[in-house]
Amino acid sequence: MRGKRAARVGLLTNALLAVFKLVAGVIGNSYALIADAIESSADVVSSTIVLGGLHVASREPDEHYPFGYGRAETLAGAVVALMLLGAGTAIAIQAVREIRTPHHTPAWWTLVVLVVVMTVKTVLSRRVAAVGVEIGSTAVQTDAWHHFSDALTSAAAFVGILIAVIGGPGWESADDWAALAASGVIGFNAIVLLRPAIADLMDRSPDMSVLESIRVAAAAVPGVLAIEKMAVRHVGLSYRVIIHVQADPQITLREAHSLGGVVTRAIHNHVEQVQSVVVHMEPYDAPRSS
């Protein structure tokens, strides 16, 4: 599964980068780089959670969970967003402490470290985001944003260290101000990422493009005279559809049942991500002319 593969790649990359940045930050006297390492450590945990959520969500429905385990994927996305918010808050608190504490100017070579980190995380973010969009995974897309936020914190650290190195004595705290700015970006991204996860947990309707595709597929079935109403929910990596179809009131119950089956197959064939369809057959009530 591409989502699991993307999470595994992110997990390994973040683990290596966290160690790389932490060592460089300690040796190079850069709290911004240490804060970046902390954020990468949070990414390691988040990728693990995403991987676990995808694994649970892939289970087949059973007697205990007849509607499946898809919510595990959405829940993983929400947990990752909350972790990102917590990491941003912790970095902000520590950055303020560092600003108030005199320390050495960061080493110039930490800038090279950050360039490498920004490049790796930007490429990783784009690839994971593409996978998330393709499979419709909230958790994978959240993980991609987590990677991108890491690139942003690295960019902020780069600016802060550059100012501190060029400015010399008296500008040491620029590194810490960069960490503080990065924490704000992290917090903002966390809130942005939390919203779609909450929307899915609250059964908000998906995009109009998805709804229209389902409606068109059902309406195109011969014998369907109107679509009375429709409700679609996003569960994990798939959609569950409840649709009320109007047909000729003179057809038999067996014919109505058969028509409902045709509608179900048409929707499945037209929208691949639809997992289940419940069709309610209704008698067609022609609109009256005024």
Could you write a compact summary of the structure shown?
This protein has 290 residues and is mostly helical. Helix content is 68%, strand content 10%.
State the main characteristics.
3-stranded mixed sheet, 2 domains, Alpha-lytic protease prodomain-like, 3 strands, about 70% helix, Alpha-Beta Plaits, elongated, about 290 residues, single chain, mainly alpha, 8 helices
What would you say this structure looks like, in words?
This protein is mainly alpha-helical. It folds into two domains: 2-201, Cation efflux protein transmembrane domain (Alpha-lytic protease prodomain-like, Up-down Bundle), CATH 1.20.1510; 208-283, Alpha-Beta Plaits (2-Layer Sandwich), CATH 3.30.70.1350. 68% of the residues lie in helices and 10% in strands. The protein contains eight helices and three strands; from the N terminus they run H-H-H-H-H-H-H-E-E-H-E. A three-stranded mixed β-sheet has the order 1-2-3. Helix 8 links the parallel strand 2 (238-247) and strand 3 (274-283).
